[in-house]
Design brief:
The chain has 3 domains: 13-19 and 26-255, 3-Layer(aba) Sandwich (Rossmann fold); 259-367, Cytochrome-c3 hydrogenase, C-terminal domain (Cytochrome-c3 Hydrogenase, Chain A, domain 2), CATH 4.10.480; 387-424 and 440-451, no CATH class. It contains 16 helices and 7 strands. The protein starts with 10 loop residues before the first helix and ends in a 48-residue tail after the last helix. By secondary structure, the protein is α/β, with parallel strands linked by helices. The radius of gyration is 31 Å and the shape is elongated. Bound molecules: iron/sulfur cluster.
Length: 451
């Protein structure tokens, strides 16, 4: 047996944590503790702004809990930043989560009752994970699909009933993950649950107490910083310290979902030059083995999965469209080339076959110091560097003509700049204070023509 070594906790951290969120207590609800501690507006929490504390009610429908797991890895901002009120201007978040909350049973459900009854004395947001099943279908056989808590005569309460009761009073309803935003996998062809998204369930007339329709942060699981950043932006707005974030027509944070995967992909250069992977593990563009990136709105290639690390195409996987409303049916079968990809990849291949050789030729010249061309020798100790042949030199001669067309060639070539004792700065004569130092009169040599 090896001895367990643990670092002592800092008393300062314990005191700070307890001051903010109270001592861990499994026998009371955290919403009641908040009320007892600071019943009025003088709560501890946000450093700025009138709203100090906001409750976040996590509700789950047809979910695998993947979004919950993913969110624990958020870094910008992190969940800890939000729960401890570390971000100036952002109210401290009191999270009620069926998986991560320490209280359970009646004490846990009391949190939800307080919000549904309007007795929270603080604003709250609802975060819904998973799709919403049609409970009427389950009731036909006396069952239920998803439930949380029970009525006096033990009967599970469908989770969707909590949403119905709490949504009108919520400052915002945020759907996290593709199941919540668009129905996702539980709503795919052949599902028996009649699953739908939060938006489909609440309808187009739904507005939160703040006047917001459902906010959608899709992804399976989503890029988690997309979620915490959106929550952060909404809370700043709630506190009157930020503008209303920009959302697109489907309620997605526009600044995060406006562009396609392809527009931000690390393999985009290969696509543009018409070079494609034919099996997994190759570094080129994956469009011919099933990537849907050119038509999928997501920023995972730019932002990574967690803390700027990972992300589908960054790590060798194709985009299967998991952020899109049509997922999964409209992107199936996965790993098969999409019909549109054949057309666009043929076009890239055709243009790439002309452009690539020209770029390689230019690269060969740009990969040389001007001095090496003057000396006609590359002093590399690593190996013999081949000299460009006559055809390449002629081609480059004309290329250089085009390059400097209507532009000045570097170096001092104009007669008025070639003074006997050097050059003058306009408005200052040599010898005067402020005049530029004179040079030896040498002007840099131009590279030999055609070299
Ligand atoms: Fe576009 Fe996909 Fe190719 Fe990346 S791998 S360049 S997203 S098609």
């Amino acid at each position: 047996m090896t001895d367990q070594v643990s670092m002592p906790r800092s008393p300062w951290i314990d005191a700070e944590m307890e001051g903010l969120v109270g001592a861990v207590d499994h026998l009371t609800s955290s919403a009641e503790r908040e009320l007892r501690k600071d019943p009025g507006v003088e709560r501890t929490g946000a450093l700025l702004g009138p709203v100090k504390v906001v409750h976040a009610y996590w509700l789950a429908g047809m979910s695998c809990d993947g979004c919950t797991v993913a969110v624990t890895g958020a870094t910008a901002p992190s969940v800890e930043d939000l729960l401890l009120g570390r971000i100036p201007g952002v109210p401290r978040v009191v999270l009620h989560h069926p998986v991560t909350s320490v209280e359970s049973g009646e004490e846990f459900m009391r949190n939800y009752e307080l919000a549904a009854e309007g007795n929270l004395n603080a604003p709250y947001v609802i975060i819904w994970e998973g799709s919403i099943p049609n409970e009427a279908l389950a009731e036909e056989t006396g069952g239920y699909w998803c439930a949380m808590g029970s009525e006096t005569v033990p009967k599970p309460i469908p989770t969707v009933n909590w949403l119905k009761r709490m949504a009108p009073g919520a400052a915002a309803v945020i759907a996290i993950g593709t199941c919540a935003t668009w129905g996702g996998i539980p709503a795919a062809y052949g599902n028996p649950t009649g699953s739908m998204s939060v938006m489909d369930f609440l309808g187009e007339d739904y507005l939160s107490a703040l006047g917001l329709p459902v906010i959608n942060v899709p992804g399976c699981s989503p890029v988690v910083d997309n979620f915490t950043e959106t929550v952060n932006a909404v809370l700043l707005f709630l506190n009157g310290l930020g503008p209303l974030p920009e959302f697109d027509e489907l309620g997605r944070p526009a600044w995060l979902f406006k562009e396609t995967v392809h527009q931000q992909c690390v393999r985009g250069g290969y696509y543009e030059e018409g070079i494609f992977a034919h099996e997994y593990g190759q570094k080129e563009c994956l469009v011919e083995i099933g990537c849907w990136g050119p038509v999928v709105q997501c920023n995972i290639t730019k932002r990574g999965a967690i803390n700027h690390v990972g992300g589908c195409m960054n790590t060798g996987g194709v985009c299967i469209g998991c952020t899109m409303p049509g997922f999964p049916d409209r992107f199936a079968p996965f790993y098969k080339r999409s019909p549109g990809a054949g057309l666009s990849s043929t076009a890239s291949r055709t243009t790439g076959s002309f452009i690539r050789p020209l770029r390689r030729l230019t690269m060969q010249f740009q990969n040389r110091e001007p001095l090496w061309d003057r000396d006609g020798h590359v002093p590399s100790g690593w190996g013999q560097v081949p000299e460009p042949g006559p055809l390449k030199k002629v081609t480059h001669f004309f290329y250089e003509k085009l390059q400097f067309q209507n532009a000045e060639i570097p170096g001092r070539t104009k007669p008025e700049e070639k003074y006997k004792h050097g050059y003058e700065v306009p408005g200052a004569r040599p010898g005067q204070t402020g005049a530029a130092p004179t040079h030896s009169g040498m002007s840099p040599k131009r590279p030999k023509k055609g070299s």
